[in-house]
Amino acid sequence: MTGLIQIINGPNLNLLGKRQPEIYGFETLEDVEADCAALAADLGLQCAFYQSNYEGALIDCIHQARDKAAGIVINPAAYTHTSVAILDALKTFDGPVIEVHISNVHQREDFRHHSYVSLRADGVIAGCGTEGYQLALRRLATLIAD
Ligand code: CA2
């Protein structure tokens, strides 16, 4: 397996930096992708970046990662709180998985306090803004090297 990290983003994250900056900040998803690519190169890794507003497409991306990725960073967005299907897909992936939330979900509405994905994730980062993606990549670099 190569050092490829699959980064997966769920619904509405395509609007990052364009709406609700008080919650999600001013960086766009394209900015996050560029930051991740630069850090991955520093860490001797590559990353593939994906966003979809469709649950099935996110599941297909996880399935494809099974054959090509050493680790997954996933921000499932609202599907975090609803999707047993995404949890089941992640359970078919053998490598480490880090769950990222830009906002501190625990400071927000009660329905954001539960994550199905956390039942599979090896680590969870929340409330660190878009820097959370960088933290997740660093953690995966450690886990993959172990
Ligand atoms: O904090 C996070 O990263 C979330 O995963 C974001 C989800 C939310 O449903 C989760 O509870 C926490 C929402 C993503 C929506 O993204 C937007 C970005 C900019 C403008 C509007 C929505």
Short description:
GO terms for molecular function: 3-dehydroquinate dehydratase activity. This protein has 146 residues and is an alpha/beta fold.
Blueprint of the fold:
Blueprint: E1 4-9, H1 21-24, H2 29-42, E2 46-51, H3 55-68, E3 71-75, H4 84-91, E4 97-101, E5 123-126, H5 131-145
Parallel strand pairs: 1-2, 1-3, 3-4, 4-5
Bound molecules: ligand CA2.
Ligand CA2 is lined by residues 12-13, 15-16, 19-20, 24, 75, 77-78, 80, 101-103, 105, 112.
Site (Transition state stabilizer): 19
Organism: Pseudooceanicola algae
EC number: 4.2.1.10
Question: Care to describe what's here?
Answer:
The chain is of the alpha/beta class and 146 residues long. The protein has one domain (4-145): Dehydroquinase, class II (Rossmann fold, 3-Layer(aba) Sandwich), CATH 3.40.50.9100. Helices cover 38% and strands 18% of the residues. It is built from 5 helices and 5 strands; from the N terminus they run βααβαβαββα. It has a 5-stranded parallel β-sheet, sandwiched between helices. Helix 3 runs parallel beside helix 4. The longest helix is centred in the C-terminal third of the chain and has 15 residues, at 131-145. The chain is globular, with a radius of gyration of 14 Å. Bound molecules: ligand CA2. Its EC number is 4.2.1.10. The active site is at 24 (proton acceptor), 101 (proton donor). Belongs to the type-II 3-dehydroquinase family.
